[in-house]
Design brief:
Layout (H helix, E strand, L loop, with lengths): L13 E4 L2 E4 H23 L6 H24 L24 H19 L3 H25 L14 E2 L16 E2 L2 H23 L5 H19 L8 E2 L2 E2 H23 L18 H22 L3
Antiparallel strand pairs: 1-2, 3-4, 5-6
Helix pairs in contact: 1-2, 1-4, 2-3, 3-4, 4-5, 4-6, 5-6, 6-7
Amino acid sequence: MRTSIPSPPPSWAQFPIGPLTVHAYALCIIAGIIVATLILSRRLKRRGIEPGFAVDIALWSVPLGIVCARFYHVFTHVGDYFAPGDNLWNVFAIWDGGNALYGSLIGGTVGIWIACRRAKVRFWSLTDALAPALLVAQSLGRLGNYFNHELFGLPTTLPWGLQIESTNPKFPPGMPAGTLFQPLFLYEIIWNLLGFALILYLERRFTLQWGKVLAAYLIWYGAGRSYLESIRIDPSSISFLGVPANVWASFAAVALGIMLFAIQARRHPGAEPSAFTGPSRVALRPSQATEEAASISDIDEERLKTSTPR
């Protein structure tokens, strides 16, 4: 018998709670937002920014990110929504899946810029704090694709091939039932978590600031996503030179990350003087800053003790 990854029962994709229908995809996205906010809060405190500012960021960036993610997906898969007989209301059916990460980055970036400008927080400090957290959030969000039986790749005979029912709308016509597919959602989860660990290491090892952590995120995610999109069973319907739009977007992310890193390394070779551009309502109070510095000092002292030969 061939080993494989079974898809969850279709009933797991949604379930009723009273008059409401709860979608597993939405729960995964919400879980990602919550975890990313918690990670961001911790990283903001180390930069002297009130941890609660992470909630302000979420209130601006999440709605804009979700809206842009949905419309980016719709307009790169126009054949799924605007063919004759299609229900145009499906354009807004975000609970059925179909949210493009690159769209969410565009909308989320606008939200972050607005929040930072209002609070006088340095944009690069915030994006550097957020970038690793995004990879964890994206990993949790990809579980929603698993529950929705979507985001799978070309047929495979590998032992971790994904089972997809032949009645699935994205199942390739003419292909025999029982065909296994590349589990792209799983590949991306693994890639994102590896990137999370690697970027944290690089940030600490080389003291990355001034947007360089964000640059590392763009390079890592774009490189991995470019390959995954190239073996996707339902690539974006818009293409240029035979290459799907999402692959071009991935190449653009890598190029942007490289340019950002090079420009910021040249313009800002030293450390950031502060995470703020002026007096801010979200700065840690002096007592909080002292406690945080003492806490970090205690941790460093304890590490020194444990690492000193006796």
